[in-house]
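Shipment paperwork, digital attachment
Item: protein structure file
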Amino acid sequence: MKKLIILLLFLPVGLLSQNWQLINPNNVCFYKTNGSELINNTVMVDSVIYGNNDTVLFLNTVITPCDTCKDYSIPCDNPYPHSNDPKYQLIQPNFLQKKVQILPGGKWYFQDTAYFVILPFARLSDIWLFDTANNISAEITEKTYAKVFPAVFDSVKTITLSNNREIRLSKNFGIIEFPDLFGDNAPAILAGVEGDTVAGASLYKFKDYFNFNIGDVFQYYREHWWVDWNDVNFKESFIKYKIISKKISGDTLKYGISGIIKEDDYPGYRYEDTLVFIDSANHITNQYLNTLFDYTVDCRWCISRGDTYKTKLLYSNVGFTLLDTTSLVNFLPGQNPLIANLFFPCDEYPGFLGSPDENNQRTYTLGFGLSVFRVEGFEWATDSLIIGYVRNGDTVGTVYDDDVLLFQELFPEEKNTRVNTYPNPAKSVLNIYVKGNMKNQPFEVILLNLQGQVVFQKKFMHNRRLFKINTLSFQNGFYLMEIKFPDHIETHKVVIQHP
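Attachment content:
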């Protein structure tokens, strides 16, 4: 029996039992890090090299915030610098580093940019040198049978480090808890696994987001503004449609819809159309967290480009909490938004990335598909968001009657205003544009929340048309903006909606 054990220790690592395997190359592991209640980190194996005496697993790298990254413009896609935006850094190791070398005897050596060793087959009270550079030792201090996921129990080992951190290993699920080795952040906790093993929580996928039902009604609001000859133009649209048919064919979801479109103060008109959604590996809803992937963008508005071009998207911020109850999308209780910001990386800067263009946003919501679409360019922007829906006979949010959309003006009180406010919803800046010959008139702006409290008040005396209000300090929600001229007062409805 002793000879058999010795032979097993020197067999190629790929032949070892999966028991106490820290990372399964065929699994994707979902973690909650830094005390988050959300799944906010994914660990998976990008590639594997099998050697005669070892196996090397190359782990996925991630994008991380970077306070010290260099400011620069991005000439290949955007001529304007992002000096005031947050910076991000590419190709960074996740908390388990960039690669791990599995040596004979079951020694797992994690490398680049930190270096440490884990011995998953060590027994109770065994001690080894975990981190040579920092002189940190490790000891198996407990072996129990414990809950790993809801209703899932497994053998668990606790490794206590000499710097008072703990690592917990599961016999069948690998690393289930890993500490912030040198900081004060909460440990990474395994939330779920998918692949050869499926257990615990997982990320939602394409068909979770685009699973509509016959009879569902969706109400959208769309706003477009642009500058033309130093004047600001606006176009408002209300789009309402009902799902009248549903067909699933392989990876394709096809919905027949019947709806109404109303633009500005013109009467609305009925239309019928077909919505087609294709479940592809590159679709944003099928991506893993904090990774870049190629994405084809409709860019008919871009200067010196064709109809489409490829850029990269970052998949981030999967929310498993209620949306802000004061926001414009508070009618989606319990839904899980998925937000992706457009990036414009350049080949000339392979190691760093400028900030995400936060003015370009896609938000996907379970059961509603693309619920927010925001794109902004130089002196133009388009916003589209769902403002209400009907499902199972229940109406939530704002859904206009057909006759209202077909025959009535929705906002007649805003027809003779002296100023335009945009964008609405506002994210970080709210613009006030003074129309016509009123640009020399002084005026005062008062912003009130729904409780009637004044959150902003300022007098403007300058001889210009465009004024900006920074909204970053305001909470998400609805506001009333009073604009007082010496001989005129008008009120605008404003929504603040931070990403």
